[in-house]
Each structure stands twice: as structure tokens, then as C-alpha cells.
């Protein structure tokens, strides 16, 4: 059974730091991996989706990498800003119907 | 605005009451999903649908029912509310094709059962 784990559960950094969020999964036979951002009391916003054939995806200051063989993905945030404060969730599809299995998230606080 | 719309945003139910959480999407997505999120946790799948008239159970379906009579709508029904159903409920949709694997989520319904 696929399990998705995110470490750390919470992270507090000063503004301007580069940081890495980690996501690991137990079954490497995934279709893709998706990173989401969730602001308090809000829904989820899709940040990046990496297909199983890809090694990384970039969007602005965000870069997500995928290593299927080791069951890991990282989300790199460059030059963090207070507006980046949110919970970041990773998820992988359970099967071809793309039902997602989520990690429990990393709660990020970027201090001014 | 294109996207997934959920109503209501907040609701308090008494134990044993029933209610329907509404979800509508205007992107002509075939796939729709209902997830619940408990405090400090990730999301768990309740039910999903791969198209109008087709629904199936997810990881935590007990106490819920769904229907999918149109492509646009995917309501979630709670028949006999229990305190364990206190949670935030998210509806999501997904298109088909290589460029549409990503999900679009609604803003959620925060439900409290007392």
C-alpha cells in the first residue's frame, strides 16, 4: 500500500533563505507527483506536477525534483518570502483513476 | 470564474441530521473527487467519479453517499451525521489528457457535528 510521508512537519526560516521540503513515497511505480500549497482556511492550489518520466519541474522560485528509484521528491524554494508561508502538501496518484494519496504536509513559516 | 465551486462554506450539524455538500465544476472535467481533511493531516479520499453516472468508493466512504447525474455536479450526502464527520471537505476535478493531469480544488466546506 502506497504511503506518503513529509518531513519536516513544520519549518520556520528567516526571509531570504533557500529551503527544501521533502516528500517520500513507498511504492516507486507512480504516474506522477504533485505539489500543492494550502493557505489557512483555504483550498489547495496546485504548484507543480512532475510526470514519472521527468526529473524536475520549475515554476518561478519553485523547483521540484523526482527520484523514483529512491522514492523521493523535493520542493526547493529559492529566496523565501513571508508570502510563501503556508502548508505544502505532496501527493501521488493511487492508480490510473488518479485518486491521490497525500502526505500530511509541511507547515512553513517565513519570518520577515 | 472557471473552477470548482463548493457550497456551503461552513455548516454546523446536530448528530443524526443529514445534509448535502454541493460541488460544481465548469471545466468539463470527467474526473471528480471528494476528500476530507482532519486537523494537521493530509487529505483522504471519500468517493470519486470518472464520469457522469459512474461513482466509486475511496479510502473512507462509510457514512457518505454520492451521485453524478451530470458532468458538472458531484454532490456528497451525509445521511446521519456523527461527530467523527467533523472535518473540512474538499471537492476536486481533473481533466483528461497529458496536459491535464493536475487537480483543481474547491475552497472547501468546514463541517462541525455537535
Short description, anyone?
Chain A is an all-beta fold and 112 residues long. In chain A, 0% of the residues lie in helices and 57% in strands.
Topology:
The complex is a heterodimer of chains A (112) and B (114).
Chain A: E1 4-7, E2 10-14, E3 19-25, E4 32-38, E5 44-51, E6 56-59, E7 62-67, E8 72-77, E9 86-93, E10 100-102, E11 106-111
Parallel strand pairs in A: 2-11
Antiparallel strand pairs in A: 1-3, 3-8, 4-5, 4-9, 6-7, 7-8, 9-10, 9-11
Chain B: E1 4-7, E2 10-13, E3 19-25, E4 31-37, E5 43-51, E6 54-57, E7 64-66, E8 76-78, E9 87-94, E10 103-105, E11 109-113
Parallel strand pairs in B: 2-11
Antiparallel strand pairs in B: 1-3, 3-8, 4-5, 4-9, 5-6, 7-8, 9-10, 9-11
What is the helical fraction of chain A, as a range of percent? under 10%
Average of per-residue pLDDT values of chain B: 91
Unreliable runs of chain B: none
* Rg of chain B, Cα atoms, Å: 13 Å
Largest sheet of chain A at a glance? 6 strands, mixed
